[in-house]
Amino acid sequence: MQDKNIGVFGYSANKPEFREFVKVFATGISKYNKCFYEPERQYRECDIAVIFGSFREDKDKEKTDYHRFKGEVLREDCRVVYIESALLNRVALVRKNTHWRVAADSFMMDGKFGFRDNPPSDRFDELNIKPKPWKTDGDYVLLGMQLLKDASLFGTDHKAWAEQTVTDILAKTDLPVKIRMHPLTKPQDENRMFAIREFEKNPRVSFSKRGTPLEEDFAGAKCMVSFTSGSGIDAVIAGVPHIAMDCRSMASPMSGWSLDHIDNPVTPDRTTYLRNMAYAQWTPEEMESGECWKHLLDNVFNNK
């Protein structure tokens, strides 16, 4: 691995402040590998490319040049390391996150984060997160929605998925369904999404009021269902049994994968999972120091 050349591509980031910590990541990588930082819109040959953010094949999004550039990097003959939004203690406004997930080959659970069988507790302890006991009751099934064109949907028609999933939940259980929109959903997207709004005519379906804290929706939920929403991790921490409808969900190891689990919830021990999640995200300072890259070297690249 020492002979590998690492390219860090600043142009993949959509904001100057993000480009800055992409740049300092190159400093940390250079302590262990040959590494260059490329700020301009050009690909340079490398064995591993580091980019900021995820990528989706979408004509509208590809009108954004930085996003189109990421697609060009991904089509090159190199492995890719992704820098993406936080997993634990995350906030909806991405720029306010203090930590960033870092993984090879994918930015979701099919990526390589360097998970271990017995990870130490130090990083998770520093986050001061107190998981709640698993719930055993609740008044409704909470459906967690995502942004219509979120890259973690992997091209799935989210509107069609939501409509079918609500229908299936209503057929599986006598519990009502509460639909929670992503907090950053634009009103015009919400209107486009909902032919599902037709469900408002069903007395067993309700919508969470915009601005309702996630914790408030969790309080009455027997379980939560989502596709790959990051709020699935929040549910796991809050003790709300979660059903991940796609195995690439970052909450999938702690989740049921079928609506049959509404009445038979999956409630595993979360200790190892949460410790690994803490080792899947890093501060810009840890990227610059080389600590993040050393973790990937020890647990991803040098194991392959």
Protein model, in words:
By secondary structure, the protein is α/β, with parallel strands linked by helices. It has two domains: about 5-120 and about 275-304, no CATH class; about 140-270, Rossmann fold. Helix content is about 30%, strand content about 15%. The chain contains ten helices and eleven strands. It has helices at about 15-30, 65-75, 120-125, 160-170, 185-195, 215-220, 230-240, 270-280, 285-290, 290-300; strands at about 5-10, 35-40, 50, 80-85, 100-105, 140-145, 175-180, 205, 220-225, 240-245, 280. A six-stranded mixed β-sheet has the order 2-1-3-4-5-11, sandwiched between helices. The longest helix has 15 residues, at about 160-170. The radius of gyration is 20 Å and the shape is globular. The model has no long low-confidence stretch (mean pLDDT about 90).
Topology (SSEs and partners):
Layout: E1 5-9, H1 16-29, E2 34-38, E3 48-52, H2 65-74, E4 79-84, E5 100-104, H3 122-126, E6 140-144, H4 158-172, E7 177-180, H5 187-193, E8 205-207, H6 214-219, E9 221-226, H7 231-238, E10 242-244, H8 271-278, E11 281-282, H9 284-289, H10 291-299
Parallel strand pairs: 1-2, 1-3, 3-4, 6-7, 6-9, 7-8, 9-10
Antiparallel strand pairs: 4-5, 5-11
